[in-house]
TrEMBL record, chain A:
SUPFAM superfamilies (alphabetical): UDP-Glycosyltransferase/glycogen phosphorylase (SSF53756)
Protein name, per record: Glycosyltransferase family 4 protein
Annotated PANTHER family: SULFOQUINOVOSYL TRANSFERASE SQD2 (PTHR45947:SF3)
Ranges for domain Glycosyltransferase subfamily 4-like N-terminal: 33-169
InterPro entries: Glyco_trans_1, Glyco_trans_4-like_N, Glycosyltransferase_grp1
Residue ranges occupied by any Glycosyl transferase family domain in the UniProt entry: 185-357
Automatic annotation (TrEMBL), chain B:
Species of origin: Cytobacillus stercorigallinarum
SUPFAM superfamilies (UniProt xref): Protein kinase-like (PK-like)
Record's keyword annotation contains Thylakoid: no
Keyword Protease listed: no
Annotated NCBIfam families: spore_CotS
Keywords from the UniProt entry: Capsid protein, Virion
Protein name: CotS family spore coat protein
Amino acid sequence: MKVLIVCTEKLPVPPVKGGAIQTFIAGAIPNLSKNHTITIIGRSDKTLPDKEIKDGVHYVRVPGGLLETYQEGVVNYLKNNTFDLIHIFNRPRLVLPIREVAPESRLILSMHNDMFKREKIEPEEAQKAIDQLDKIITISNYIGNEIVKLYPDAQPKIQTIYSGVDLERFVPTYSAKGKRIRASMRQKHKLESKKVILFAGRLSVNKGADTLLRSMVDLAKKHPNVALVLMGGKGFSDNRMTDYIAYIKAIADRLPIPVITTGFVHPDQIQDWFAAADIFVCPSQWEEPLARVHYEAMAAGLPIVTTARGGNPEIIEIGKNGFIVEQADNPQEFVTHLSKLLSSPSLCKEMGQYGRSYAEKNHNWNRVIDDISQVWSGIEYKIKNNVDISSTSKMNDEKEEQLLTKKAVAEKVSPLEKKHTRPKQKQPIKKITTSSIPWLNKEIIANKASNY
Amino acid sequence: MTSLEQLITPWDLDETLGDLYVPPFIEEMAQQVIKQYNFNVSSMEVITTKADKGGLIWKINTNKGPKSLKILHRKPSRSLFSIGAQEYLVHEKKARIPAIVKTKSGSNIVEMGGKIWFVADWIEPLYPVSADIEGAKLLSNAIGEFHQLSKGYVPPKGAENASRLLRWPNAYKKVVRKISWFRNVANLYSELPTSKTILNTVDMFEEQAKKALTMLEQSSYQQMVTKGNKEWGLVHQDYGWSNGQMGPGGMWIIDLDGVAYDLPIRDLRKLISGSMDDLGRWDINWIVGMLEAYNEAHPITDELFEILLIDFSLPNLYYKNVKDMLFEPTIALNSELDSVVQRIVEIDKTKWPILEQLRKEWRGGKRK
């Protein structure tokens, strides 16, 4: 198929400036170009050309910043270019303007944040946008559930596809490569003898570094040997000292343990800090969609302490790859879980190893690529068979299953394979809604039921 | 890279260069910007700098009269919202606000160094109003007029939609949250003299903030804001005794850089509570005088008045003054903050009876 990927107006792809959505696109999409002709449209950036072809993928970059400005660029581009499928990322508000200039294209929306909230999009527009979509992919069950709460008829279109992590780049601390990086990072930052607790994210109220810092007051009494690393965003020495940064610096200054703020770390280098750490903590206070850092921590073989906020708990098996803080703003709960881990290096190791295997199994990019590929194949099938938008998922799944049992498999798959010289798939047709994490699929069904 | 390609960023972070210092590359840019206008500059004078943010104002004397040349520190799309508002108010509404001078090519702005620059008329003479109840009334009436005239503004293409209309609950939550930070920091620095004062007062003010939030949530706020940005109009956000001054033809309002859509009484609340702070106590006659003067230009509906009372109930003064302890607590908690807090507690005591009285006595835009 001829596919257009529409990024957001905020950050460029590839993720030269970071960004979860940008990482997702860069991690999964180029691999799909074996079977599809892919164009990625995104915002322009000084360090990137406005047009290029790289690894078989066409990149088009138009001015970004404001959604309105960006939308104009995307719409203008679509006036002169047609696609079978347009896969939009995280901007429900782009759906209708795109539909207007691409009346024949199939539209998919990938949701990474709660952008269907009332203050982000007018209910009427949201409903119309949903009607135009063949599929809504979400990065966590939480995000899907939030959409369904507001727009129940979106439900059959929704499918969770968890993001992935580069397992070569994020290596376990106990691997040979991990040990090398670890030793050099720890030496460089004078952490050789420390138990390093790692936080990764912006220093903002939502991300909760203050609660984690406050927990260090008591934790340091029991475990004087810890050091806390706050990686990313603005450091204490950054130009613009906000009230919040002043606040957490005021806490940090009173702690008997070292607190390192790294400031902005280039996306290419963040794995080094994961390799240097012993425990990863995500103290998020807001209903977070599902932070990528969890995958990165698991890949690095670190046990995780996270909060029961948004989608974060979805990838935690309690006591196996991490612990969940139920009351996100209670420092004492962090103390409890961290003490348990710090008191038992063998538990840390065991959980880290489990986390690594969990990431290998569930969050390798191939799994993400397969999931998207299947969604796209489903669309391709609908195009071939003139199945309209509204007869999606549930009904469609049933139809498909019927077709399968009636030996329609060959009809469905082979023409596509011929056309795109697609390599034989191991499993030509899986049910479209199948996630590779079966127990989570069950959970989303349960969650959804409870949301009504 | 030539100096003209440089980006303007904050230039005096440790505050050692002096208030009126301007980096040479910005001076050079100013010359380039001036070339784009149809006037000749005979002299220029730095009036004020926002060195920590990257903003600046010059007064320039030209063959076409005195003008101001400004660098707006906000990001360009945000600044365009404010410039658009200024143009709307001057041209469509004939408000007493300095007119923007266009460039040779007819543009309102010049973009250089990643910032928006613009030139506006320098209004002369401008006098601050008298620091008494009559002055306060003039200010109140002028901002009421501003609110009335700003209704209907639609920002130009390429501008952000700057609105605080829906953010009130979050702003209140922020106050509640930050007050709890004061407690946490005071506890960690408990040996310092002022920590005890903070700890003695923080519960009361936190309670006030929580109560104000509950009141806001129970008020008609949610329903009021559905009216929409354009219908409510703009709020100055930085209005007071220096940004409203007496000049040719009446009161002039200047420095519109921060304007945003909002409930209009936010400006009035700041103006009144600021005046009460200066006065050292809450005074019903001042407040009623200001409300009446405002009401003449922009009617205060009963539901708007309810929001005003709620906004008064927030511990604005405490929050604003104690906030600074988060920066360098070892200095702040050793300083005169103690007497500042004592004073705020005293002023606060006089506030509640007055709010009660206002609640009883003010209806339909006047005192009963």
